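Quick start: what a row looks like.
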Amino acid sequence: MGGRPGGGALVLVLVLLCAGGARGKPTFRKDRVVHPEPELGERPHEDNQSFQYDHEAFLGKEEAKTFDQLTPEESKEKLGKIVDRIDDDKDGYVTPEELKNWIKRVQKRYIYENVAKVWKDYDLNKDNKISWEEYKQATYGYYLENPEEFQDATDQHNFKKMLPRDERRFKTADLDGDSAATREEFTAFLHPEEFEHMKDIVVLETLQDIDKNEDGFVDQDEYIADMFANEEGGPEPDWVVTEREQFSDFRDLNKDGKMDKEEIRHWILPQDYDHAQAEARHLVYESDVDKDQKLTKEEILDNWNMFVGSQATNYGEDLTKNHDEL
């Protein structure tokens, strides 16, 4: 569900791949479940060995690598500046809620970086907005102007399918309805899984991708076919058998043999666990010396190794680089 780079016939190939039209069926389990904090996984904490999970959650994966190259003094100095930014109400304390919000912002940073990279490819008139016409021209212009190069019926079908699908998603992201996307609106368009008002689009597009008989539901065979194509015949792998059981036991909630939109939402947009909240509570619990359920800057700096760490071993030229603030 990511963005598509602009320009030329290459874009058309990428659009097909994004649409699933030219996608080969994998022989391994494909995960359609949306993870709102993509860099935060299900890994257990290993605080008796290292604080890598905490560092990546608190800083983001790339920034955590940067901190690994700093001396303890440099790490504490940068951490102090970060704490000031986390304390939204400037009351001198970092609450679990403020820490959770910070972790969510850190984990979303990658999508804003992605949008920044492709922005100029779509903002053709440089007015700091991307209109639907600009996006359509950058993404589909070559196809629309050279349809004779795409005589294959499958190609034609996929492009005709993707254009209205993108337009529908664009209009949903365009909250003020002016047919021109701001940075935030365009981010919602390229990364709908990250925005609450785009969740219906994520569900609908997933349904349309998998529902091959177009009856408005996903049955067990369609669910399995999205993950696995038994092109060689023979018995299904054990994991496929397990997935069939998962469908019956956990996906098909009303036991009618198929998934509707609400059941698809429950599957791909699980609401039962908040990684950022769990990590924030963990960091507070481990650092809250006076057990008042909030952290002072002193408490955080005293436990700096859990938040940012420092290998302090391989300085080299990395220390000569400019380490930007988060």
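That is the whole record. The chain has a mean pLDDT of 82. The radius of gyration is 23 Å.
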